[in-house]
Automatic annotation (TrEMBL):
This is Rho guanine nucleotide exchange factor 16. Keywords: Guanine-nucleotide releasing factor, Phosphoprotein, SH3 domain. The keyword Signal does not apply. PANTHER family: GUANINE NUCLEOTIDE EXCHANGE FACTOR, RHO GUANINE NUCLEOTIDE EXCHANGE FACTOR 16. CDD domains: PH_ephexin, RhoGEF, SH3_ARHGEF16_26. Residues 209-224 have a biased composition (Basic and acidic residues). Residues 47-67, 183-247 are annotated as: Disordered. Residues 285-469 form the DH domain. Residues 194-208 have a biased composition (Basic residues). The gene is Arhgef16. It comes from Cricetulus griseus (Chinese hamster). Residues 631-691 form the SH3 domain. GO terms for molecular function: GTPase activator activity; guanyl-nucleotide exchange factor activity; PDZ domain binding; receptor tyrosine kinase binding; small GTPase binding. Gene3D superfamilies: Dbl homology (DH) domain, Pleckstrin-homology domain (PH domain)/Phosphotyrosine-binding domain (PTB), SH3 Domains. InterPro entries: ARHGEF16/ARHGEF26_SH3, DBL_dom_sf, DH_dom, Ephexin-like, PH-like_dom_sf, PH_domain, PH_ephexin, SH3-like_dom_sf.
């Protein structure tokens, strides 16, 4: 019997103690004095296997009669001499027919009988595991050798008794204390592949098709999004051990996603064709990039289908809202789904036609120009979608309960509905990076590179239209609403708010530290409410949630801001006000609505809020200054989606890379590298990219994308 079937030293010690105590054996495995002998001394037979006595077979003692001891061979000299193999009485062996099926996994007797759980429940209790009957027979052709697992079989027979097995298979008592338990009919549950020590750190076995086990798009991260590598083997090779995984993650220290489970090189048709033996490394990388666009589109399509079937078509959810709210929430998602289905079918048809796909750039370009227009409409509706969802979640109890029940369904994977609603925005912003990866892997072929570049330009143009549509819709609706809320009756000249070139940068209420001339008449409330547009600053007093009385305004070019320390003497009350004025700053209107100069001393609730106001008020100066060397600034990768709640914040998708411009009190001000948009977001939604190589590679790639795609 092989070593893997032998008991551990701890199990043997426990068994030795147990059997010696229960069967009253001495240290040498022989019965103690005064006990009847079943057979001769164990020392007398050291060179041969035990044979049954010629006399009649032993009988199980009846109740009330003295128990005859059972002598096992665990400590016999023959067993010690044989090492891991043990010699056992033939009467204890049970013959079984050999099966042709694959042998089942066996379990050591000591680990099975003396499990921690059984010992904790009852020290006298032995739990009998289910043993395999495969390969139990003695190999007659090899004298003196026993087949594997016969020891388990012998102990199984010992647990069932020494007498002939009954027709019903009933177990019998072995002694006054040691009792047998009936075997469990059910087999132990199969271990998960992830927990199997034999597969730990290795690649999981893949099925024949990438469609076999569809993943939610929210839970994957395409390899093509890894902007830190431009020409290495990150797409070809997967780590084969935990150490290799750790080395692969040193470029970006973020482990928030799992990559696609199946690569092109692992497809059965690819392996059977033998093309991997003749394919160049560059061509193999290109095939992997093509295949990832296909598989990620399938995963995205799978998640979109769940959004439609589980949420859009839910009667319970629809009954909790009006028709307008339902339209704002789901918009034209059916059109987006149809566009994705058509795109995937075209990619799949090309994939099935050839083992090595010649190209898909023409498909990308055609669909970006002719079939992806529903994305622009869906992204333009984003502001209404987010507002409607927030309104329903805050004020509609029936909606919250119905949504909670749907999100619990297995199909949703424990993810909230918002993660499904943002899928089109998420997909359309990832496509340029995936297409750019295809460009990088096609540089050795001029014609294919030109086709991939045209596809990249078409998709980037689509993304630009989506962004502009979302901004235009949001800004137009925002300016119209503010036009009805701002009252200019207190100023000499009204400001026409509605303009296609004007949008809101930031708004909020701040504390007044002294009475300015524009606030003397209404100084009972020491606060003011500011509206900062991209070209004007409007100072108001808040009358209600939907009404603001304008006190003054000035062009942003005529506004200066200065950060103050709480202990500065210039503040009202001097250093004694430091505790009540934690975050002061000063705003100067060099030329206000009446042509005069005005100074306002303000204070915010937090250091981050003050920093955000100062950043917003000086945004034009920052635009002129620019950033000389972006590679020297820190970068972060977004680990989970963040939705902007204020005008100066930025909405970020998973896997976005952001250049950090400023950090203050748990908030980061950054520039999204894929399109250059800036804004604030919580630091908890991002993790640092620690590798300088990755940081510089990201900057180079994003600068190249902006030049080539004119984004």
């Amino acid at each position: 019997m092989s070593q893997r079937h032998s008991d551990s030293s701890l199990d043997e010690k426990l068994l030795e103690y147990r059997f010696h105590a229960e069967l009253q054996l001495d240290a040498n495995g022989n019965p103690m004095s005064g006990l009847p002998m079943v057979r001769g001394s164990l020392r007398a037979r050291t060179n041969a296997a035990f044979e049954p006595e010629p006399s009649e077979p032993p009988q199980v003692p009846l109740e009330g009669e003295g128990s005859r001891p059972i002598i096992l061979s665990t400590q016999s000299p023959a067993a010690l001499k044989m090492g891991t193999q043990q010699l056992i009485p033939k009467s204890l062996a049970v013959a079984s027919k050999a099966k042709t099926k694959s042998p089942a996994r066996h379990q050591s007797f000591g680990a099975a009988v003396l499990s921690k759980e059984a010992a904790r429940r009852d020290p006298r209790l032995f739990s009998t595991p289910s043993f395999s009957l495969d390969d139990m027979d003695v190999d007659a052709s090899t004298a003196g050798n026993l087949k594997r697992n016969i020891r388990n079989q012998s102990y199984r027979a010992a647990m069932k008794g020494l007498g002939p097995p009954s027709s019903k298979g009933d177990s019998c008592q072995l002694g006054p204390k040691l009792q047998a338990l009936a075997e469990e009919a059910a087999q132990p549950p199969a271990r998960s592949p992830a927990k199997n020590k034999k597969t730990l750190g290795r690649k999981r076995a893949h099925k024949g098709s990438f469609k076999d086990d569809p993943q939610l798009y929210q839970e994957i991260r395409e390899r093509g999004l890894n902007t830190s590598h431009e020409s290495d083997d990150d797409i070809l090779d997967e780590p084969s051990s935990p150490e290799a995984t750790q080395r692969a993650d040193t470029t970006i220290v973020v482990k928030s996603y799992r990559p696609a489970q199946l690569t092109w090189s692992q497809l059965p048709e690819v392996l059977e064709s033998g093309v991997l033996d003749t394919l160049s490394v560059e061509e193999r990388k290109r095939q992997e990039a093509i295949f990832e666009i296909l598989t990620s589109e399938f995963s995205y399509l799978h998640s979109l289908s769940i959004l439609v079937t589980e949420f859009l078509q839910s009667r319970e959810l629809r009954a909790t809202m009006t028709q307008t709210e339902h339209h704002h929430l789901f918009s034209n998602i059916l059109d987006v789904l149809a566009a994705s289905q058509k795109f995937f079918e075209a990619l799949e048809q090309r994939h099935k036609a050839q083992v090595c796909v010649e190209d898909i750039s023409d498909i990308l370009e055609e669909h970006a120009e002719k079939h992806f227009h529903p994305y622009v409409a869906y992204c333009s509706n984003e502001v209404y979608q987010q507002r409607t969802l927030q309104k329903l979640s805050n004020s509609n109890t029936a909606f919250r309960e119905a949504l909670r029940e749907i999100e619990k369904r297995p199909a949703c994977g424990g993810l909230p509905m918002i993660s499904f609603l943002i899928l089109p925005m998420q997909r359309v912003t990832r496509l340029p990076l995936l297409t750019d990866t295809l460009c990088l892997k096609t540089q050795g072929h001029p014609e294919r590179y030109k086709a991939a570049s045209r596809a990249l330009k078409a998709i980037s143009k689509l993304v630009k239209q989506c962004n502009e549509g979302a901004h235009k819709m949001e800004r137009t609706e925002q300016m119209y609403t503010l036009h009805t809320q701002l009252d200019f009756s207190k100023v000499n000249k009204s400001l026409p708010l509605i303009s296609a070139s004007r949008w809101l940068l930031k708004r909020g209420e701040l504390f007044l530290l002294e009475e300015s001339s524009i606030f003397r008449k209404i100084a009972s409330r020491p606060t003011c409410y500011l509206f900062l547009f991209n070209d004007f600053l409007v100072v108001t007093k808040k009358k209600s949630e939907e009404s603001y009385l304008v006190q003054d305004y000035a062009q942003l070019d005529h506004v200066q801001v200065r950060k103050l320390e709480a202990s500065e003497p210039s503040l009202p009350g001097g250093s004694g006000r430091s505790s009540s004025v934690p975050h002061p700053f000063q705003v100067n209107l060099l030329h206000n609505s009446e042509g005069r100069q005005e100074q306002i001393l303000l204070s915010s609730d937090s250091a981050s809020d003050r920093a955000r106001w100062i950043t917003a008020l000086t945004h034009k100066e920052r635009e002129w200054q620019g950033i000389t060397n972006k590679g020297e600034l820190p970068q972060v990768e977004i680990t989970k989606a963040y939705f902007a709640k204020q005008a100066d914040e930025i909405t970020l998708q998973q896997a976005d890379v952001v250049l950090v411009l400023q950090e203050e009190d748990g908030w980061l001000h950054g520039e999204r590298l894929r399109d250059g948009e800036t804004g604030w977001f919580p630091e908890s939604f991002a993790r640092s990219i620690t590798s300088r190589v990755a940081v510089e590679g990201n900057v180079r790639r994003m600068e190249r994308l902006r030049v080539e795609t004119d984004v």
